Every structure is written in C-alpha cells, then in structure tokens.
Amino acid sequence: MSKRRLAFSKLNMAKYISHLDLLRCFTRAIMRAELPVVYSQGFNPHQKMTFSLPLSVGVTSSREFADIEFEDGISDSDIMKRLNLTLPPDIRILSVGAPEISANDIFAAEYEVTILSDSHCAELPDACKKFFAQPEVAIIKRTKKKGEQELNLMDFVESAEGFRECGDDARFSLTLSAGGQKNLKPEIAVEALIDHLSSQTDIKITGYNIHRTKILYDKNEPKEFN
Amino acid sequence: MQNYRRKYEDCLRRVQKPARYIGNEFGSVHKEKTDDMMTFAFCFPDVYEVGMSHLGMKILYHMLNERDDTICERVFAPWDDMEQEMRKNGIPLLSMESCSPVGGFDIVGFTLQYEMSYSNVVNMLDLAGIPLRTSERGSGDPFICCGGPCAYHAEPLAELVDFFILGEGEEVNGEIMDVYKEWRGSGKDRDEFLMSLVGLGGIYVPKFYDVEYNDDNTIKRFEPNRPGVPKQVRKRIITDFDNCYAPEKLVVPFMETVHDRIMLEIFRGCIRGCRFCQAGYIYRPVRERSVKRLTGIAENCIRNTGYEEMSLSSLSTSDYTQRQDLIDDLLDITVDKRINLSLPSLRVDNFSMELMEKIQKVKKSGLTFAPEAGTQRLRDVINKNVLESDLIRTSKIAFGGGYNRIKLYFMLGLPTETYDDVLGIAELAKKVIDEGFFTIPPEKRKGRSVSITVSTSFFVPKPFTPFQWEPQDLISEMEAKAKYLKENIRSKKIVYNWHNSDISLLEAVFAKGDRRLGEVLITAHSLGCKFDGWSDFFDYDKWIEAFKANNIDPAFYANRRIGYDEILPWDYADIGVPKSFFIKEHKRAYEGKTTPDCREKCSGCGAASFGGGVCFE
Asked: Is B218 within 8 Å of B567 (Cβ atoms)?
C-alpha cells in the first residue's frame, strides 16, 4: 500500500464541478481504469482520497493535487496513463509520484485574474492596481463555524502584481492566503474589486475569470507545492 | 456559435448548480459536424438531473450516435434561474454537446414521460425561438416530434408537434433518419416528408387528421384528411428484445442525478394487467432479455461507467422468469467490485426469503410495496392480484430479516371506492405492524421498532386502460378521502403522506384531453406555467385562468363518465389491445372479477399479433 500524489489540471467547463462532484468523478474514473485502490474500513467503505486544497466552483487550475492510496504493484506511469483514458477531457493527470510535502505546509495560492470588459479602457489595469494598493478593504466572509465576519481583505493578500491589458480585458497575478491557517476564496477578493470598480469608476465590467496557477508552501521561503 | 458559449459560460457563475449545464461528461458523444450530416436534438422537458436519470434517453442517444451520418445531442430544460439569465442575455436554448441553438437542428425530438411536462415542451420551443404551432413553421425550421409513453396519446400537443412516434424508438428512429436523408435536398415540401414517414408505420401526423365536434363537445368525426393516411396508426415495437440494441457505454454525470446508477432493463412490458396502469397495456407483450445477454450488458456497463450501483429496471422485477439465476450471476460480477445491486418494483406475492437475503448481501435499505388499495374487494376491482396474507407474510420476512422500514403505496379515488376501502388502508398498515412485526418474538426482532410509511396518490384515469371511461373524483372528494384516512391512522409507527390533488386533476385533463387543449397550453405558458411536476412551480390558479381564457371546462375531460360508444380522442392509436378488450375488462372490474396474468392464462388481449414475447413462450 502506498499513497501517491496525483497532479492534475481542471480546465474549461470543469471549473463548475464542485468539490464533492470531483471526488465522485475521480472515484468512478478509478473504477473504470480498474486500478487497485485502497478502501477505508468500516460500514461504508470508500476509496482513500484527499485533495490538497479544494478549489472554488468557477475557478480553473493548472495544477491541483489529489492524494490517493493504491495497492502495491502499480507504477506511477500506469496510474497516469490509465486515468487519462478514463477521466473526462477537461481533467488531465499531469504527474504521479510519492508525496513529499505535507498539505499542512501550504500557506498561499497564486491566481491569474482576468477582469472582462466589452469596451476598451486603458485605465482598467491601473484602476485594479490602485484597488490593491489600499491599506484596508472591508469584506464579509461567511463560514459555517463563525457565521458572517467583517475582515480586512488586505490581511489575506500576499501580493498583487503584473497588471496589464489583454485585449479589452485586464489581467494580473494575485497571491492570497490559503490552507488551514488562513484562507480566502479568490472570488471574494475579485468581487470586492469589481464592486469597487463599478461604484468608483465609469468602467463597465462584464465578468471575470480566475485561474489558479500554483499553490505555495513554506512561508519563510515560498516554493511551489508539488 | 462560439459567442453563445462565452455568454453562456458567464451565466453559469450566477446560477445554482452550474454542473447541470456544463456537459463534457465522461461518455458524452462529441462529433464533428460536416454538411452531409443530419442533426437530431434529443430534448427532455425537465431539468438535467431528472432527464439524465431516464433510461430511454440513454438508449436512443447512443443508438442514433452510432450512425455515421447523424449527430444526436442532448437538451434539457434550464432551471428557472438559468432561463432568466439566458433570456436576459439573448441566449436561445442550446444543446449540451456543442452549445448549438436547438432551432438549427434538423429534427427536434421530445420524450414525453408525464403529462405535467407539456408546459416545459412549450417553454423549450419558445426559448429555442421555434414557432410554437406547426402551422407557423416553414422551410427554415426543424421538424418537431415526440415519443415516449405519453406520445401514444398527446392530442393536447397536436397543434405544436409535427409527428408522434408510437411505440419503441429503437425500432423506428433509424428509419426516420433514413427518410430524412432522402427527403433533404430533394426539393419536396415538408408535408411530403411527413407523408413518407406515415409510410413507415408507427408515425402519427396530427395535421393529416380532421376533427369535428358535437354540440356537447364530444367528438363527432375524427378522420384522415388525405389519401394514404391510415385511420388508425399501429405502434411499432421490437419483437426480439433479447438481441435488440442496449447501450453499454453511458454518459456518467458529474452531479448527482435522481437515478445515479446503471439501469439494467431486464424486460419490457408487464404480465399483470392492473386495470389502472397504462404502462401495463401500452408495452405489451412482455419481452424478456436472457440472463446471458444481461450479464454481458452489465459487465460492459460496469467497466465503462465506474458506477457503484446497479439496479434492475422493469415494471415488476420479481416477475422476471429467471430471477434467481440472474441475481446469482449479477452478484458474481458486482460483489467483489463493491457494487450495490438494487431491486426496485418488487411484488409481495412472490417475494421470498432467498431473494431478500440476496439483496441484503450488498445493501440493506427500506422496502417499498404497492398494494394500491386497502381492501381485497377493491384490489380485485383493479386487478391487483395481491392478497393481504401475502403482504403480512412479506412484512414478517422483511422485519425478521432486519428491515425496519416499509413503504406502502396506495391510490385514492379508484373506481367503485367507498369510505370502507379508504379505512381499509389504515387497517392494512396497522396489520402489517401488528401481525408482521409484533408476532415476531421480541428476542428475534432485529430492530427495536419499525415504521411504516403510507403514501397515497389520487387515481388518474388513463387512455388505453379499462378505466379510460371513468371519471376522476372531484378535488373536494379527493381531499375528504385523504382527510378521512389521516384521521384514521392513529399509530405513531405509521407516517402518512399524500400527493397534491390539484395536480392530479391537471394530469387527468391532459391524459385524456383532445387537441383543443393546445391553445390552453400556449396560454398557460404565456402566464408563466412551467415545471408543473415541481410543487414549487405548479400554480393551479394560472391553469384555471388559462382554461377560462379558452372557454374550456377541465371537468369535461377529468370528471365526466364517458360512454363506450363515444369517439375517444386517442382512438387513432392502435396499441395492439383493442377497445373491445378494455370494455370486457371494465365490466369484469365492476363484477369484482380478476383476470389472470399472461403467464397463468392468456386472456386474449390481442398483443399476440406482434408475434413475440410472452405470447409465444
């Protein structure tokens, strides 16, 4: 028995697959691939599977991670090859290997944010930049445990940079706290930005895209999680 | 096309359950469209998780896509929040696979599973931008067709639908595509295409028939209006069910659907002949699949889907002749893979200890039985050949085996029903507890207590049954009966649920209605009626307004006793069982005489003329 870490991409419409549905999707893909997976003991046995950092519905990702336990005797490359035949097209396994870093060490995630506009506006990237230069932005965070809390968005922003034009749209890179200690869903930050743009400027925003580019661990010396 | 996709994707951020709309599931079929290919939009007039639970759609979707010359794509009714987003953003109804506008398909087919989905058919046509009435459609528009159980009699949709498929799609759909292929580009008009379809048999084209009415609103004349169109359309069915097409690769949804499992269709039809049950007559004769074929299909479906559950699908699972062999063979291929096997539609008269132990091997859940009526007298009237002693015996086996919850289904408002029959339901449920549970010695009881759920629905008289001439109870009567039953259920171990009576009335009107109801449907749609099968959407007052606006009295269709000699709106359809048989059965019902099932003794219903199935076993 050994735990393997599967890195996978979740692109296009697959961004709308919820965490629970993704779990079911992997379970069935493993069944179809007839891979020797380890089941939990107990009344309702299930495949032993955990995802490193659940992704919000509506967000795509270049590299997500699932830790799954397999019986011995199946190679990493076999797992990858067989699962890529049985997973739906918008979810692709990128690598399989032994997990080295604990998901508990994750502290942040980097996102590529695109703010959509259907008319060109040269000030848009700069307006976005100015928003993230503020010392304090009040946001409401809802959790099951604590209910509604008013918090400062900037406490969660590790960095916001690379503001640029992309056709009529604006694009930038946003790194937010993530993981067990301190976590913020990216759409909360982006919706706060759009609220600000609609109320403080004349720029017309038609929507947004968020794409997770990497997950980071080790706050003192940030490195890409793998 | 691409720009719909971007707008459509953007809408998904603002709706509940976006996974309903994303497509690209494992097993979905994506084909490159070339000019010579024909396109078929398979529409299910309900939301994704309901439509994706439907076996018929799975069969026909994959079957049409096996043809190199045809692209079949799925379409579902968007939930209200998504519909509003689509209308606001100018997005028409789109197919799942390629996000193509439904109005651009060659043929748009709806499957009609229940009458309460008709308003969604209208809404989907409207959202697709397709003219609602056949008379308003022209050369640039698709052909609209309907199939499924309600298509045997969907006169209320006659003004909206170009043709109906009577019978089983596996048998006919390929031929329809062949005819379309020949017609397309031939320069012939739409009517000529429809005439060629008539030649196939099993196709009903409503515009080729004229209907005249008497002053009392009954039908005076219902005749073909051109040569070559038959007075009656005979259904087309598969005779060799064992060897007919069954999909072995299925679309596996991302989100949880209502029936989220492999459905293994073990046979089609039912030997029983319950007199209220339309399915029991329209699917005649009973045709079984062999154990060998079924295990083959099951193995492939398991491999191709990864599903963790498989259920046997039929109208009455325990009537499968080789049931012990089948369950043994299926357990052999499922247990090791941790796949649950579930057996719905069990009957109490042939439920055995052995069968129960087998299904328990994998999963122990609640059991459901449908005695349908509370007294033996009434069960004889409806020909539900189930004895009280059967139910008690079965409950004993179940409770003794560790089940602690049994659900019982009944109908209220059946023909000849009295308040004694209603009371009988309460008494029967109590007996199941008293005699099925308390007679088990306390030390042998598995659970500490048990519960019984009694559910009642209201009887809806349906075409192609011996009760097709029967009136439905008035809403006030239905409610009085449900109240009386509730008052007479006193045990805390019995929970009572009942269905909405307003919906049952609507169901009766559209089940037995004629083509004058088309305008009511269109008015109801304009008033906002949709998803009528969902209690959060169903709005009785709007429907009543729609009837009034068209000067139509719903009671004429639902609450009137029809004479044997009256022309029925569905007389055009020949399901293989003639009216004379239903008259005979209707009379036997009133005499309290039961009719044996097909395997016990042939009652000569006429279905033998199809040349297959149980009639030749």
From this structure: yes
